[in-house]
Amino acid sequence: MPPSRAPILHAPRDHPRNPAVDRPAGRLANRAQAQDPDTIDPVAALTALCDGNDAGACTRLGDRLLEGEDVARDEARGVEILFKACQLGDRPGCNMVGFVSSKGTGRAQSTDRALAYYAHACHGGEATACSNLGLAYISGEGAAGAVIDISP
């Protein structure tokens, strides 16, 4: 019998970038910035969109904060913003909350919370979350059909 291996969960980078926000000609650019694309701050643009409850922008901003991409790395704030993205309905954001919960990034590690967020995202059609949920069940983490609570 081959040795048991821990599952390889899909990392948060599975969330696609939005060129309308992540590139210098993003939709928040004002006229002066549109004339000089190098002056646009993608983190500021994502922050403004997330503040306006754009769930996808919140996911991308949370990812940038977790990775320290174009901004100082801030795991606690990144996780908080990912929770917001999920609550706003962004299923890739919910998958990312599951991933950071499984690793203990930015807050205490919680397998139960990870499974709940993976399941929530999976039920919403996020294939990566379905994969993560299945891998967790295969490795013996949680029970299929468990009650799902995604309160922060």
Strand tally is: 0
**Major sheet: size, sense and barrel closure?**
none
End-to-end CA span: 40 Å
The chain-level structural class is mainly alpha
What does the overall shape look like? elongated
- CA-based gyration radius: 17 Å
CATH topology: Serine Threonine Protein Phosphatase 5, Tetratricopeptide repeat
Mean pLDDT over the residues: 79
Total domains: 1
Name the helix and strand elements from N-terminus to C-terminus, one letter apiece: HHHHHHHH
Compute the number of helices: 8
Quick summary of this structure?
The chain is mainly alpha-helical. It has a single domain (17-138), classed as Serine Threonine Protein Phosphatase 5, Tetratricopeptide repeat (Alpha Horseshoe), CATH 1.25.40.10. Helices cover 55% and strands 0% of the residues.
Task: Tell me about this structure.
The structure is a single chain. The chain has helices spanning 19-22, 31-35, 42-51, 55-67, 75-87, 91-103, 111-123, 127-138. The longest helix is centred in the middle third of the chain and has 13 residues, at 55-67. The protein is mainly alpha-helical and 152 residues long. Mean pLDDT is 79; it is low at 1-8 and 13-33. It is 55% helix and 0% strand. The protein starts with 18 loop residues before the first helix and ends in a 14-residue tail after the last helix. The protein has one domain (17-138): Tetratricopeptide repeat domain (Serine Threonine Protein Phosphatase 5, Tetratricopeptide repeat, Alpha Horseshoe). Helix 3 (42-51) packs across helix 4 (55-67), helix 6 (91-103) packs antiparallel against helix 7 (111-123) and helix 7 crosses helix 8.
